[in-house]
Write a structure and sequence with these properties.
Helix content is 40%, strand content 14%. The protein is an alpha+beta fold.
């Protein structure tokens, strides 16, 4: 489970993957067209681990259905400065 942002308080994207490092690389390099490429949403601002892919998909749906204000609070609880948590992962 992860949340990307275009910038602090910017456009958000909620996703799920079994390989976060590879998926962040794909977002950063815009290798997969779509929402994140179109709106330049490529900063990892929150992530969490689930016990299974089914749990991750369920959590993703719950987060997507929450209000934006709730998502912002979730991010700021663990990442108040909106740092790119994957800044050193991929170049």
């Amino acid at each position: 489970m992860y949340i990307l942002s275009s910038k602090r308080n910017g456009t958000l994207y909620v996703g799920v993957t079994s390989d976060l490092v590879t998926r962040i690389y794909q977002h950063r390099e815009h290798l997969v067209g779509g929402f994140t490429s179109k709106y330049k949403v490529d900063r990892l601002v929150w992530f969490g681990e689930c016990g299974s892919i089914l749990e991750a998909i369920e959590l993703e749906k719950k987060i997507k259905n929450r209000a934006r204000k709730w998502k912002l609070a979730l991010i700021e609880e663990l990442n108040p400065e909106w740092q790119d948590l994957a800044a050193d992962w991929v170049e």
